[in-house]
Amino acid sequence: SWGEMTIEVTAAQNRAVSFTNKRAGVFYTQTHRNDHPEHAWYRGYNIAGQRVFSEMLLSIGGEARDPAAALAYVTPEALEYRWPDGVKATFRLFDGVDVIALDVAGVPASARDSLVLTLAGEPVRADGQTGAIQHYRSQDGDKGTVHHVAVLRTQHGFLVAIGNTRDAAVKLVREADAKHDTWAKARHRRLTGLFSANHSIETSDPVLDKALHWLTHTTDQLVTAQRGQGIYAGLPWFNQYWGRDTFISFTGALLVTGQFDTAKEILRSFAKFQDRDPESPFFGRMPNIVLPGA
């Protein structure tokens, strides 16, 4: 339980929420409706800056579950919706894999078989079904990477896995089904470890403490391994490594939180892109930006 760090959000408040898988996967949404004039374009899941899908639409008994009719609860590891009839839907990511879990609870046994999850959005298209697995194909623009998506109904609800091929997506979603609990516990341990007594800041003001803990979490999710280790300049649209932003945030994001090994890896990663040509007018300069695959 995240206790005091849990934030309740009403439809009127409609707050932005993001999670990363600490590699190159980002999930971004507004809690109840994606109506921001700029940010809404980035809603859903993207990998290395390319959109995979924009919406995860849950229905029960043929009726869509509208987030606007629910209360949302946000913690550092999950986004949960609670509807008045007792149904709960919880979104979460896992570290290092392109998998999204949607756990569904509170559904009467007689209605469990009517659970349906549909992926939607400009980049994604349905691509058939094999047994219990729904297939999707996604490409963000004519030159974007083709992603294959597998959706599997499980005892918890649904798992969504993304791979470079259909077989890779299927293999990953089956692995996620087998390792769901193990992966969830590992991510929980890592996240709670960020607030350990060794480097947690405590004050006499509980409201300030909560804000500082959330700042620690939201900064940590920017530290990823998208192309070597680095720090995103921001979300939802700056999921790239900018040299200036990285090293401005370096001390607070990594050294204050005790992540010294990651700090060393970021220095090594950026050093690979340093201009080492003594004849260059930019000799010794670090890059301003490191793009995926650049």
Key words describing this protein structure:
20 strands, 33% strand, 4-stranded antiparallel beta sheet, 294 residues, alpha+beta, 9-stranded antiparallel beta sheet
Characterization of this structure:
This protein is globular. The model has no long low-confidence stretch (mean pLDDT about 95). About 30% of the residues are buried. Strand 4 (about 45) and strand 5 (about 50-55) form a beta hairpin. The N and C termini lie far apart (about 40 Å). A nine-stranded antiparallel sheet has the order 1-8-9-10-11-16-15-14-13, with helices on one face. Strands 2-3-4-5 form a four-stranded antiparallel sheet, with no helix packed on it. It has helices spanning about 165-195, 205-220, 245-255, 260-270, and strands at about 5-10, 15-20, 25-30, 45, 50-55, 55-60, 65, 70-75, 80, 90-95, 100-105, 115-120, 125-130, 135-140, 145-155, 155-165, 225, 230, 240, 290. The protein is of the alpha+beta class and about 290 residues long. It contains four helices and 20 strands. It is about 25% helix and about 35% strand.
